[in-house]
Amino acid sequence: MKLSNLALKLAIAAALGTTGMSAFAGTTTATNINIAADSFGAAYDDTTVTTPATNVAFTGAASTPIGGSLVTTFTLSGGAKFNAVPTVGVTGTGGGTYTTVGSLNANGDVLTVLTNLTVAAGTVPIVTLTTPAFKNIKSALATVGGKVNITVALSNYGGPGGTGIVLGTDSGAAVAAFTSAAGITLTATASTDNKVIDVQNASSNGKKFTVGTVGAGAYLTNLVLLNLGNIAVADGTALRPGGVGATAYNTATNATGAGALGLTVTVSPNGASWPTGSSLQLANDANCTTGLSTAVTTAGTANVDLPLTLAAANATSYFACLTVNGTADIPVFTPKISAVLKKSVATDADSTVSAINAYAIVSNGKTAFADNFIAASNAPGYYSVLRFINTGSIDAAPTIVVMNAQGVQVGNTAVLATMKANGGALNYTSAQIDAAVGTLPAGNYRIKVTAPTGGLRVQHYINTPNGLAESSGFANGL
Hints:
Elements: H1 5-16, E1 27-29, E2 33-36, E3 56-59, E4 69-76, E5 81-82, E6 87-92, E7 97-104, E8 110-119, E9 125-130, E10 134-135, H2 138-141, E11 147-157, E12 166-181, E13 184-190, E14 195-203, E15 206-211, E16 218-220, E17 224-235, H3 251-254, E18 262-268, E19 279-283, E20 296-297, E21 304-309, E22 317-324, E23 336-342, E24 351-357, E25 366-374, E26 383-390, E27 399-403, E28 409-415, E29 424-429, H4 430-437, E30 444-451, E31 456-463, E32 469-476
Parallel strand pairs: 2-12
Antiparallel strand pairs: 1-3, 3-9, 4-8, 4-11, 5-10, 6-9, 7-8, 11-12, 13-17, 14-15, 15-16, 17-22, 18-21, 18-23, 19-20, 19-22, 23-24, 25-30, 26-29, 26-31, 27-28, 27-30, 31-32
């Protein structure tokens, strides 16, 4: 009876003690090297040869007959390539003498090993690559979490040189030779400073800061230090540089030489104007008591760069500190902070953190304006009535400043009676305003109203000689 081709193969395999193997029956071993992704900057030479510290080995599960052969392929992922054909060795657990030759495909990412068994039958073949060298690993590893995998496949043939009947196939699951992680990272966070602009402690020189929340706190009338935010520098764990040198990749090893670690923190006023005469610098404590970088004077709406060369002994946390003269005019604004960290190796990529909102500089209340206020000394019968409404959640007394057409204060600053929270209101006539700030000359004025409350509304009425009250507008506090 004539055997089919498949039956013939099975019969031969059985006679030789060999059977076809399922996928991943073999075992691939390779020591994974974890590399800093930021090693691969724009200037990194992708032909750099990288050699792991250990060998790559594949242990098959199908035996080879005497006179037979093995064809084993090692395939790299992610665009990585073998630099050259490595030293290849093949042994069998049952002994035997093997002759081996390796070759690379045109792209260099597949190594094919052809092995002939010339003396005695080996049982389980072990194919070993001795410290193979790789290149072109950047495309796979420049992104955090990248991998270069090695996948091995093996076929047993009945004849030499990969000829004859295929007696069995075998393969190993993909094994990572290299992975990547963040080397030196930056993070930025806003501070939790508790200084606010006090809307009622104002003078012709500007506003002052107070410590605390709305309606409470101690006045700061001299130089004030504001912690705007924090830039933290952190090392990855057990990382190597792109060339897989023996030295760990971290801030300590990068903070040496001519290209030592250079941190630049950029602080933006975010469209506002800096307080006159203010300055910025980096400090290594949240209270801004120990300055590290040179103080840089602010100017208008311009961004401020704060450079700092990091030493291995430096702290890993840095604070952007704003120094403000306590009598300078301080706007309500939210600065932004971003940072760039340049490495000591020119081919490394910068570590960056995008701009985030820093500490929000806010006031402890609201400000509104009543326009076209008529002084009590004007023609008899015409006078103003101001209605102050507290829409905030705490009781608050409004403070008023009367200004002429040129914006210059006339009379004294006056604190009026307390408005109850949640809708409490006060009415003040022209005569009562005169009594509070001092007698005003005849004329029309503008009144600035401030109150330490979260909600302020001002309405203005004009009473005429015929006794009619006409609304002249309203303003919500800002």
